[in-house]
Amino acid sequence: MIGRIRLFVLGACLVASGFAQAQPDAFAAARARGELVVGVPYLAPPPAAGAKIRTPDGLDAAMTDRLAQSLGLPVRLVQLPQEQAAAALAAGRVDLVLADGASAQPDAVATQATGYAARPKAVIRSDTSLRRPADVRGRSVCMAEAASASRALAESWGAVVRTYRVPSDALVAVREGSCDIGLVDDAVWEPLVRFPEWKKFSSTLAADGARRERVWLLPASDSASRNWLSQEMRSWDRAGAWKAMTAKWARDVAFDVYLDQEVPDCHG
């Protein structure tokens, strides 16, 4: 009886750790290479020499970092349009691809849901009358260049769209009054506006647009990696990973905005 209990506890521990040790053949090419290479829809241009480092849009960087840590590997991101994912995976140029949904992928590509789904949500001054998407026609709406869903949604409202390299630049424009509305993922909106300095910018618009889930794409033939990744995503869900990552993103971006508005740029 005691032996069975020990086996059960051991199995539970392996599940909690994502089977990282139980499946050494998962992502074998990445292990042989010494790094995990992940294709992502967008990489912000690097900052100019001497410029402040800023948090990128979305959770792609956080997700890939966490996954690579579970594998015990460094990670390298490459910009890869979703329509090129199958060819890049087949050629071994990338080990994984993060995509905005899994539409129109061939049978050779497997899809693993991440559990992170979001849609654009507005950040607005609380003393404005903007409440519905119809109110936004002709008004300025700002977002990061990477936020393609936000841009498409704002264009459908008839807004004047302005994009910035990183989300904090768009939010600074909102805070300084040069932009009427900022758009971020609804998953990160709530932890952002909880900060006291964002209380005056905690209004929003009625929900609009489709919620889209980030998914992993990988070779369908690589069953070891598929099994490991499925277990890892379940482990993230149990551990509250999405809440932790969205809270950190909000904290980092709020700090970026603080630096831009309150701290002089020594290189400026």
Radius of gyration: 21 Å
Assembly annotation = single chain
Element order, helices and strands? HHEHEHEEEEHEHEHEHH
Instruction: Give the overall form.
Output: elongated
SS field, number of helical segments? 9
Biggest beta-sheet profile: 5 strands, mixed
Signal peptide: 1-22
Domain Solute-binding protein family 3/N-terminal: 35-253
Protein name: Transporter substrate-binding domain-containing protein
InterPro entries: Solute-binding_3/MltF_N (IPR001638)
Short description:
It contains nine helices and nine strands. Helix 6 packs across helix 9 (241-262) and helix 7 (186-193) crosses helix 9. A five-stranded mixed β-sheet has the order 2-1-3-9-4.
What does this molecule look like?
- This protein is α/β, with parallel strands linked by helices and 268 residues long.
- The protein is built from 9 helices and 9 strands.
- The chain has helices at residues 2-16, 28-33, 60-71, 85-91, 148-156, 167-175, 186-193, 223-239, 241-262, and strands at 36-40, 75-79, 96-100, 109-118, 120-123, 140-144, 160-164, 181-185, 212-219.
- The strands form 2 sheets. A 5-stranded mixed beta sheet has the order 2-1-3-9-4.
- Helix 3 links the parallel strand 1 and strand 2 (75-79).
- Helix 6 packs across helix 9 and helix 7 packs across helix 9 (241-262).
- The model is unreliable at 5-22 (pLDDT under 50).
- Keywords: Signal.
- Residues 35-253 form the Solute-binding protein family 3/N-terminal domain.
- This is Transporter substrate-binding domain-containing protein.
- Pfam families: SBP_bac_3 (PF00497).
- Residues 1-22 form the signal peptide.
